[in-house]
Fold this sequence. Notes:
This protein has 247 residues and is an alpha/beta fold. The protein has 8 helices and 7 strands.
Amino acid sequence: MDRWAGKVAVVTGASSGIGAAIVKSLANAGMVVVGLARRVERVEALRDGLKDQATRKRLHAVKCDVSKEEHILRAFRWVEEKLGGVDVLVNNAGVLRDAKLVAPGNTGDLREVIDTNVMGLVLCSREAFQSMKKRSVDGHIVHINSVVGHYIPNLPVLSIYPASKYAVTALTETMRREFLAEGTKIKVTSISPGVVKTDMVPNEMQKDQDLPMLEAEDIAAAVVYAVGTPPRVQIHELTIRPVGENF
């Protein structure tokens, strides 16, 4: 990670869970980190809770709902004006809504999942790519995907969520090819965890004492690993499962 010291990382969905863990890991690794979140006060509290003063100064909190394009444009404009641009983007923001596809009156929930998990990821990636290309930066874009972006477990509560993550799997390869066609060496990585112990996990799964789960810090460590690989190495897809998972 030495070559990234002082470089700028943007992390979406930074207020809790995986996003908060990624923010702390990248800041501790010496990067200047911008945590985007709807609940920006949580990112500020995370920053204030860091023990090292130098690390606290490297962490910035910016209010942003990635389901809204105007929020994304404003946030990336802030990064460019205040910090010079983006070197690493981690698309972590995501939502899961228990809204069966065939249930009436569920349009709002379904649209929120797609707007956040798919369109938010695409638009943030677009803005980050433009920033990197303009400055001739060999940057890195990381998508926090999911194992359900590769197979669909028999869990009706997931609803449209697997479809949104299958889209992330496809978008990762599409972006890789577009980055190459644009003549850049910008990397793109998809990280697909199994069940992670966060607020997003449905209550019925959280109550299962026998269900193996990963910790948010496990995913943050994977992000640091992928970003820290040599320029010649691109981790295209990294799948992480807890030991003992059987579905």
